[in-house]
Amino acid sequence: MNTSPFFIKPTPLQVVMLKVAAALLPGIIALTWAFGVGVLVQITLALGTALLAEAACLKLRNYPIKPFLCDGSAAVTAVLLALSMPPLAPWWMVVLATLIAICLAKHLYGGLGQNPFNPAMVGFAVMIVSFPAQMSRWAAPLPLDIPHLDSLAQILTIFSGQLPQAFDAMASATPLDTVKTALLQQHALSDIFQQPIFGAVAGVGSEWAAVGFLLGGLYLLWSKLIAWQIPVGFLAAFILTASLFYGVDPAHYSPPWFHLFSGAAILGAFFIVSDPVTAPTTPRGRLIFAALAGMLTYMIRVFGAYPDGVAFAVLIMNIATPFIDQYTQPPVFGRKS
Predict the structure, then answer these.
(1) What does the alpha-carbon distance between residue 201 and residue 128 come to, in Å, rounded to a whole number?
(2) Cα–Cα dist 214/38, whole Å
(3) Please, which residues have CB within 8 angstroms of residue 33's CB and are 6 or more apart in sequence?
(4) For a surface tag, which of 16, 149, 300, 330 has the fewest beta carbons within 10 Å of its beta carbon?
């Protein structure tokens, strides 16, 4: 009987990225159903820009273009960034954000595996800090019984940069932004949630997108493409923090299920915080990293200047990754410490 060690053949990066892209599909379909073809246009713009920027950076660095361009990492970064952008954002915003993500946040640090910060979240953070008004305006969900821009009008809006005169009647802030603004104006939560943009547990349409990303995330866990400590740690800390504030003052703090199915909480837990390059490598370190990111996400949402906090929480914790890795390394085999 052969008792030699068995070596597990690592999954090729291209296969990993293909499975991640497949896991994103349910959420993308739900977002497109809720907000229209603009979601797909933004993804297409980001993909095209990411591949061109990746090829240009590889050429400048004298790296072979085809192997790195085909590994799928730039494409996944582009899709995650596009999903974070408003569906009707002007074309140049998603192009600029993607250039920042690929050229600055990725290749400036040496390329895949060397970047200390999540590239997609760097691109998003620069956009929301630089253009907060444009980044906070989303088209009203299509399931609402109000006039909407058709597919052609959405495409023309993205590429012309000219909003139709009736756009204000068709646009709305995100559910998170709506709640934060209304609370600052001393409105009661019970009255806020009576607005038509809110559904059963969160925003109309966006709650189904969250369910789609949850299904995709469970697939990643089942496929063992991500470590369970990260989504479990993030969601547990996020829900616990939201529950504590809601339990203390339910009149001023939204319920945890609203926070869970709003914004990028579920997308972040499974697809962003779990980035293997910028997250710790030890099991205990991943749990600490994810839990702190989940807590920070809630605190930034509720007490910060921006409606969602996933991007900033991830980037802050990316800074701490080397320290977490250093202090959670297990002892070398044969030593006690």
Answers:
(1) 26
(2) 22
(3) 142, 205, 208
(4) 330
